[in-house]
Design goal:
This protein is α/β, with parallel strands linked by helices. The protein has ten helices and nine strands. The N and C termini lie far apart (about 35 Å).
Length: about 270
């Protein structure tokens, strides 16, 4: 398993399994299938309303808990100190675990510092292992650092070939924060899976456009959490560590960057 070391000293898999929009039985089976085919990072969130199904998938897979890196996130209306404390305990119950490997604040809420204080207390109690943020711009991240006095382990953000967010990745790296990409396939927008540039480069390596898109982010030092419910695609998305893109190929893909979010973030 290929990993990156967080500023906590713990290892986090470079490729994880995202569960956005997966629900119920389909979610549970997808999580179990992902773990069976080799994934060891599972990403969910309170906002996704599927933590219970993710927990069921963890149980079905039969993979020892200590081998799994589990991420979830807290969101509104629990965007307060007390709300975050309640949601941490609720997430543990729904997921069926006694600790969470990475716990994130889902958006840059006004009360994010108070939420983080609740997370720090839960970490001291052994309920959380690493703490982080999500969807914070570089400016918002800097303000958060000043207010909390602590550098988060991860800032999860939108990143894909059409908006790799390299400026934010660089700002995170300068602070010792890992930027992790959500929606690394841009939810298939702009025909990513059949894009001519990605497809041509992929063919040169015996890979698909999707694998090329993931490899591009990984070579920029950005871990990814792609989502799919299809086992064949799960395996394909993990199979991105046996080839390297050349400087010329990276530069060609760089030209796809439109410089703005496709989902209305960071405006």
């Amino acid at each position: 398993m290929h990993t990156v070391t967080l500023n906590t000293g713990r290892a986090m898999p470079l490729v994880g399994f995202g569960t956005w929009a997966l629900r119920g039985e389909a979610c549970a089976e997808a999580v179990a299938a992902a773990l069976r085919c080799g994934y060891r990072l599972i990403d969910t969130a309170q906002m996704y309303r599927n933590e219970d199904a993710v927990g069921e998938g963890l149980r079905r897979a039969g993979v020892p808990r200590e081998q799994i890196f589990l991420t979830t996130k807290v969101c509104s209306p629990a965007d307060s100190y007390e709300g975050t404390k309640r949601q941490i305990d609720a997430a543990l119950r729904r997921l069926g675990t006694d600790y969470i490997d990475l716990f994130l604040i889902h958006e840059p809420y006004r009360d994010a510092p108070a939420m983080y204080r609740a997370m720090q207390e839960a970490r001291a109690e052994g309920k959380l292992r690493a703490l982080g943020i999500s969807n914070f711009s570089a400016r918002e991240m800097e303000a958060f650092l000043r207010e909390t006095g602590e550098v988060p382990a991860v800032n999860q953000a939108e990143a894909h070939v059409f908006y790799p967010h390299l400026d934010l990745a660089a700002a995170c790296a300068e602070r010792g924060v890992i930027m992790q990409a959500w929606s690394p396939f841009a939810e298939g927008q702009r025909r990513l899976f059949t894009n001519e540039i990605l497809s041509a480069i992929g063919r040169a390596h015996g890979k698909t456009a999707a694998q090329t898109a993931l490899r591009f982010l990984l070579q920029h030092g950005i871990p990814v959490i792609p989502k799919t419910a299809k086992p064949a695609r799960m395996k394909e998305n993990l199979d991105v560590f046996d080839f390297d893109l050349s400087a010329e190929e990276m530069a060609a893909i760089d030209k796809l960057d439109g410089g703005r979010s496709l989902f209305g973030w960071y405006e």
